[in-house]
Fold this sequence. Notes:
Number of helices: 20
Strand order of the largest sheet: 1-2
Structural class: mainly alpha
Shape: globular
Largest sheet: 2 strands, antiparallel
Distance between the termini: 48 Å
Order of helices and strands: HHHHHHHHHEEHHHHHHHHHHH
Helix content: 55-70%
Low-confidence stretches: 1-25, 28-51, 101-107, 339-350, 485-491
Amino acid sequence: MTVTELLPASPGGQPGPATIRSPGLRTRILVLLASTAVVAGAVVSGMSIGGQDKRLVVLPIAAVVAVALGVLALTRFASFVLLLLVLRSSIDLFKLSGSSAGNTATNTAVARGIDPSSIMALLFLLASVLWLLAQYSHGRRMKGSALRTALLVFTASGAVSVIEAGSRQAAALETTRILSVAMMFIILEQLITSRAMLVRTIAAAYASLVFPLLYTLWGLVLGTPASEVKGSFTRLTGPFSQSNTFARYLAFMIVFGVAVYPSLSKRLKLVMLGVLGLSSLFMVLTLTRGALIASVVAIIVIAVIQRRVALIAAFAASTLVALLLVPQLGARFTDLGASQQLPGGPETGNSLAWRINYWTEVLPLANRDPVTGIGLNMTQYETDAAKQPHNDFIRAYVETGVVGLGAYLAMHFFLLRTGVVALGRAARGTFEHRVATGALGCAICFLLSSMAANVMSNVVSLWYLVTFVACAAYVARLDPSSAAIPEGGRPGEERARAMVDRRP
């Protein structure tokens, strides 16, 4: 199949955006049964051959799933992208590399490269490039956006930094991870061209919460939740390898969910209320200060923009309850200056004092090449602590130079600007206005988290951030007079309207 064949012909005989005919029910059932049989065979084969070797169990399954996703990408690209959004939050459970990005024997660039998440990212990049080439070859040139340019420039600065990297393999892998985030925004920016697609994209993002919430809840019920011990604290990790990752993912979901909640139908409001309640509980139990503070600030901003005084009151009450019921939460905020030796490293309790000291150690590394940096992901290879800087702005400067830092700052600016412009396009009280508010809240959450954490290449969190911002980008492109729930629309719009409350 050639690139130009990826798009079907329009009714007039010319290549166009017509939808590929859906396969029949019998075909779908046969494909499902065949896929199930193959996956089951791969599991049995891997377990019998691999024994205790996790790779021999995971990799055969990953290969089968990758083939199935590849077929879907070539036939129904939009469905492929939405399915990746649903699955991405769950596949870290099958991670083969270590839990952190240090240069240990169990977490090399090779080990990270064969993780199912890395395989998924590469598959997504390949399918996306083919789809974009097909669009371009048929004259459907994509309108540019400042945010897209900033994302690509930052990715390019990372690619240039690979040349000077001490471990080019690790730097190239990190560049690929960042590229997958940029590509997710680019693709969704092109796909979200209707309210129906807007609603489907948001629904896919929240469908990704199902497994992490149920998995964590089941662990709590059994008394053996997935967790990690840092210092004197036990912190929930969910299906992720680190509590910080789980917290950032939940933060974006909570912030955006709070923003769009008033526009949902009555039935979906009940569902969202349960989702937000569980997500908030689990985020508190991750004891991740940065994500908690960032989400608090973002929710306050949302309450002010949407003039929801009751939200601020309810949020304040919830905070007091959380502090009373989870004593460790208060302890996490009182140990900022305390010295706590963590197992396996010199870091003292992730405290502010440790961060400041580490930043003074990291910054001089940029003197080697202040223009292009020492290479993405190289900070941890150049310091005794073997850790990332815990500040994405410092990391951008040290690893990608002044060019990369400029692009990273521009990226944050345009993330915020997209939300602000979308707010100006949509009428207050409409679903679109609340989508814009949620995206702006997520951008603020990302900005604050980046000041004291390693979020820059946290793909699993950033995929959902750029998803919500791409939704706001669609609103920003609307004519102000049309940015409200319409009475009519194209096929599929009725279902989208049924999911939101049409009243301002």
